[in-house]
């Protein structure tokens, strides 16, 4: 099993964990409903049919369908994965969010929750989403499918569900609880993997994670002793739009922060891209405008890269460290 501890997994580790889980059918599978408000899990009892004749097994049908979807969606070699710090690039990729003490939207799946209540029809209005649990030994994987209120047909939602009977369509009296062939989020260990950042913001308070990461970036800059008026950075992310915190969050894992303050000042004063860009006093950068704050973010995020072949400089929001030349 590939490690699934506190660290953020990479693409290869995610794919390997998925392959390890589905190497054969000798794993455990169950389904749960995650409730709104105080997050609780309720067990979704799925019909297993008649095992003696191996027919009508709805649970196995769901199990196989979600398994196929996980494999198709998350192990495709053409799919890109990126750390959550890079969400400001707004690319079509899977972002990996590490659950820690500050942000644990799915802590409920790590808790011991047996015995657990069954999900009943009267609980439908409280349902936030469905969690499909796959477990093999110590490896545990959860696939989350979000439930949108309008996906549950009922008169309350301004429309009715109908069924065909002898070519006549009649009203269905019972409320439908839909299970779709869809996954919004995959959870492996402490890692949340999703391309649906808007869902995370809307339903799982992801704004708090973004703000926290942006504040951590500012703390690192303060420790570096590079900027004289650090309050300008705090003011920058304190504005109403979340995009400013997303931009600041980009530098939280930057290798540039491993440099000393003097090394960075030397670069700013000598490189054509940065020369004259900042007001430097007593070997520190003094920030006067938000534009200067964004220039500092570009500097620390290595937004600009130079081609060894042409000598041209490119602005790159998305970067992947190249393998060293042998």
TrEMBL record:
It comes from the Bacteria. This is DUF4868 domain-containing protein. InterPro entries: KwaB-like. It comes from Asaccharospora irregularis DSM 2635.
């Amino acid at each position: 099993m590939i490690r699934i501890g506190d660290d953020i997994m990479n693409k290869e580790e995610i794919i390997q964990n998925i392959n390890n889980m589905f190497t054969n059918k000798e794993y455990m599978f169950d389904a749960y409903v995650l409730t709104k408000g105080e997050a609780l899990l309720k067990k979704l009892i799925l019909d297993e049919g008649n095992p003696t004749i191996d027919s009508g097994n709805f649970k196995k049908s769901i199990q196989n369908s979600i398994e196929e979807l996980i494999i198709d969606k998350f192990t495709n070699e053409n799919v890109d994965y990126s750390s959550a710090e890079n969400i400001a690039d707004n690319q079509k990729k899977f972002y990996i969010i590490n659950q820690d003490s500050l942000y644990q939207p799915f802590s409920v799946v790590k808790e011991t929750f047996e015995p657990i209540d069954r999900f009943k029809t009267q609980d439908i209005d409280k349902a936030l989403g469905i969690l499909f649990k796959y477990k093999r030994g110590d490896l545990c994987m959860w696939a989350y499918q979000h439930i949108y209120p309008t996906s549950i047909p009922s008169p309350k939602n301004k429309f009715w569900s109908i069924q065909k009977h002898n070519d006549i369509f009649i009203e269905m009296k019972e409320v439908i609880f839909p299970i779709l062939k869809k996954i919004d989020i995959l959870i492996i260990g402490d890692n949340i993997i999703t391309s649906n950042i808007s869902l995370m913001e809307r339903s799982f308070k992801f704004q708090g994670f973004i703000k926290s990461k942006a504040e951590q970036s500012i703390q690192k800059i303060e420790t570096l002793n590079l900027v004289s008026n650090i309050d300008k950075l705090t003011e920058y992310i304190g504005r109403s739009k979340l995009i400013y915190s997303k931009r600041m969050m980009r530098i939280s894992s930057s290798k540039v922060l491993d440099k000393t303050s003097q090394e960075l000042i030397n670069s700013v004063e000598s490189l054509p891209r940065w020369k004259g860009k900042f007001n430097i006093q007593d070997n520190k950068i003094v920030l006067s405008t938000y534009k200067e704050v964004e220039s500092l973010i570009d500097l620390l995020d290595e937004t600009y890269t130079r081609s060894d072949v042409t000598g041209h400089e490119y602005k790159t929001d998305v970067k992947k460290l190249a393998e060293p030349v042998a």
